Amino acid sequence: MASLPAGPEIERLVQLLAKLPGLGPRSARRAALALLKKREGLLEPLAIAMRDAANAIRVCEICGNLDTASPCSLCRDTRRDAHILCVVEDVADLWALERAGVFRGKYHVLGGALSALDGVTPERLNVSALLSRVVSGVEEVILAMNATVEGQTTAHYLMDALQPSGVKVTRLAHGVPVGGELDYLDEGTLFAAFKARREL
Question: SS3 for 99?
């Protein structure tokens, strides 16, 4: 990234913004400029909100969700069906399913997907905690993996790992497009995929 005709503080702001998903160098410069132009109304409140979030956010000890308390609000919600567990790759996928309002059970966040190229092995994912949770009264595990090669590889691995438990294992229908990620799907597609899930 070419340096800006500005001080190191602005340069650092742009470099950090460029690390966010969906923001390249040009978008990061535009975002930084918008923040700096609205310092009192946007930049300073954002800095305070980010500091507060950094201090308050916890990873849920049960499911892996992000919240201000652990266990998170979803795990503490007694109205949710504890007999059905939906396994997702990432917190963004959990949030997408919650936005769609299609699931009222409990979640389990793996923290990624298996990838030989990136060195992501089962030991680097939250698999052992999933297997421990399944033996405590879970009747169905829904594999809501992204429809990518890594997501499907992870789903197959989990099917094999869960088989000895005897738990019913289902997965989202193939209405989720190949190469698609849950966080980018509309609520209608997510709803249809959930309704068409089938046993493996």
Answer: helix
Distance CA 55, CA 103 (A): 30
Q: What is the pTM of this model?
A: 0.79
Q: Do 84 and 181 have their domain in common?
A: yes
Q: Please report where in the chains the tokens 């409990």 appear, as a residue.
A: 106
Tell how strand 105-109 and strand 81-88 pair up: parallel
What's the CATH number where 48 sits? 1.10.8.420
What gap in Å lies between CA 70 and CA 50, rounded to an integer? 19
Q: Do the beta carbons of residue 138 and residue 167 sit within 8 Å?
A: yes
Residues 25-80 pLDDT 10s: 999 999 999 999 999 999 999 999 999 999 999 999 999 999 999 999 999 999 99
DSSP string, 5-67: SS-HHHHHHHHHHHTSTT--HHHHHHHHHHHHHTIIIIIHHHHHHHHHHHHH-EE-TTT--EE
Within-domain flag for 92? yes
74 assigned to some structural domain: no
Q: How far apart are CA 147 and CA 189, in angstroms?
A: 13
The total of structural domains in the chain comes to 2
Domain span at residue 31 reads 8-56
Nearby residues of 11 by Cβ (< 8 Å), 6 or more positions away: 3, 4
